[in-house]
Design a protein that fits this description.
The chain contains 15 helices and five strands. With 332 residues, the chain is α+β, with helices and mostly antiparallel strands. The chain has four domains: 75 residues, no CATH class; 96 residues, DNA polymerase, domain 1 (Orthogonal Bundle); 45 residues; 66 residues, no CATH class. The protein has a five-stranded antiparallel beta sheet with strand order 4-3-2-1-5, with helices on one face. Helix 1 packs antiparallel against helix 9, helix 2 crosses helix 5 and helix 3 crosses helix 5. The protein is flat, with a radius of gyration of 26 Å.
């Protein structure tokens, strides 16, 4: 076994003592291993962050683990492993986001969440498209009371101001606030240690999401290879069929072949119907599926279709995978 990377981490402990840990990456016969050993513990008590043959997966697990322990206060002797460049354009925005998350008024945040829930339901769209939690945290912490102040909240652009500005200001107008706009005071008032830990927490979340996607990718490819179905995948991954199709389309773009799955899922769809979809894709284009649905089935109104609209859209997306692959093959 060859050690290809070794670093020591330290953090303040009790009674002015320093706690230490060692992180190693080793390789043996193409098998990568990432180990974390704290204090005087031997290798037998090490935490194994990763063991496998994929360099990409190993690096994600490596970075996720580093971020997780740096949130707890560990600092590497050799720094820069997460490519930190805090002093740059955009760092002030992250400070505002951090301050908002740490200092949001719970009562105001809850009132804004209830407004967002009602607005999203009325517009039949996802709540995060109305406003993300991060935006609501900042509004709850900084309490803008005019349109000019609301525009200073990162992520609250002209479109949101026109659509929702007055409704949000009606909620914030009677709330108390301790500091005024503009928000340059945040840079001095924000606790530097809390900000650093918050930054590493964002990285931990980011790398955790990447790890989860890698696990899901493996499961999708293995299940498809073994003859699994969309229903089986949706159950195992706890994803909606729409989210699952999003993942499959992304993997198809990466070069993975899903023809066996497409064949199984379209097994009961008449050839004539599949041909009509194919011709519609060629005629009206494959970017948007609503025109294809309307051309093939005569309408896009759910109440007038003989099957649930989500089932039909899933069929269209499966056939579109074949259609796009055929275009790529022809181009080559």
């Amino acid at each position: 076994m060859q050690i290809v990377f070794l670093n020591t981490f330290e953090k303040p402990g009790d009674n002015h003592q320093t706690e230490s840990a060692q992180l190693t990456i080793s390789e043996s016969g193409g098998l990568w291993t990432v180990l974390w050993v704290e204090g005087e513990e031997g290798i037998a008590d090490a935490q194994t962050w990763f063991e496998g043959t994929s360099w990409e997966e190993m690096m994600i697990a490596f970075r996720h683990g580093i971020a997780r322990f740096m949130v707890e206060g560990y600092v590497p002797v050799i720094d820069g492993m997460l490519d930190d460049r805090r002093a740059s354009a955009g760092s002030f925005v992250s400070m505002l986001q951090c301050y908002g998350e740490l200092h949001a008024s719970p009562e105001l945040f809850q009132a804004l969440r209830e407004w967002r829930r009602a607005k999203a339901a009325g517009e039949k769209r996802s709540a995060y498209l109305v406003a993300t939690n991060r935006i609501l945290w900042m509004i709850s912490a900084f309490v803008p009371k005019t349109e000019e102040e609301l525009k200073q909240i990162p992520g609250w652009g002209t479109a949101k101001l026109a659509s929702y500005g007055q409704e949000v200001l009606a909620i914030t107008t009677h709330a108390e606030r301790t500091d005024d706009f503009p928000l340059q005071w945040v840079e001095q008032k924000l606790d530097s240690q809390a900000y650093t830990q918050w930054l590493y927490k964002q990285k931990e979340t980011k790398f955790k999401a990447q790890m989860d996607r890698q696990v899901a990718k493996k499961l999708i490819l293995t299940t498809v290879q073994q003859g699994g179905t969309l229903e089986q995948l949706g159950t195992e991954l706890e994803l909606s069929r729409r989210e699952l199709m999003d993942r499959i389309e992304q993997l198809e773009q990466e070069g993975y072949d899903f023809e066996p799955l497409i064949t199984r899922e379209l097994g009961e769809v008449p050839e004539e119907e599949q041909q009509l979809v194919w011709e519609a894709l060629a005629e009206v284009g494959d970017k948007y599926l609503k025109p294809v649905l309307q051309q093939v089935y005569g309408t896009s109104e759910p109440s007038q279709l003989n099957k649930p609209v989500d089932v039909l859209y899933e069929r269209l997306r499966l056939i579109r995978l074949r259609f796009r692959r055929s275009l790529t093959s022809t181009a080559v």
